[in-house]
Amino acid sequence: MLTLFRWLASTHFSIALNQSQWAFAIIEIVHLLALSVSGGAILYFDLRMLGWSFRSQPEAQVARALLPLAGLGMLAMTVSGFLMVASGPVRYYYNPAFRLKMYLFIVALLFHFAVQWKVSRGDKEGSVRTVARLAAVISLLLWFSIGVAGRAIGFV
Predict the structure, then answer these.
(1) How many C-beta atoms surround the C-beta of residue 80 within 10 A?
(2) What is the SS3 assignment for 87?
(3) Where in the sequence is the domain holding 17, given as residue range(s)?
């Protein structure tokens, strides 16, 4: 992986991002806006799974409605996150908080979308309440941990 990060650091694209006065700030704004879209969709879905919001709507309906928002937000966050890393790849490679965030991101992404996709395909309401609540709590903890790791990147 280090070879890949070093190669990225040597590209004209990465050098231009690194030398730009405004590029990182603009990319970070896009990253945070995408975070608010996907984070909001994920939070609403998890709150519905906990039974704390959208109680009048079936879980499957809420999951289907929020899936595109969460997906588009994640796509925008992934692209903007890649651009942020491209502005200083080797620095990110050696940052333990960045590595932790990426590991957590992969786990959270797979876990959340597997749960949300499964729920969006279901028709029965409340058949496995305890499992749904546990999944929502795990999802919230994973995404919160990603946020903490993300904030730590600048301090490590």
Answers:
(1) 20
(2) coil
(3) 2-153
Separation of alpha carbons 108 and 30, rounded Å: 21
User: How many domains in the chain?
Assistant: 1
Q: Cβ of 49: how many Cβ atoms within 10 Å?
A: 26
pLDDT digits (tens, 9 = 90+) for 24-63: 999 999 999 999 999 999 999 999 999 898 889 988 899 9
Give the rounded distance of the alpha carbon of 53 from its chain centre. Answer: 21
d(CA 81, CA 51): 32
Contact partners, residue 58, CB within 8 Å, separation at least 6: 123, 125
- Identify the sign of the CA torsion 51, 53, 55, 58: negative
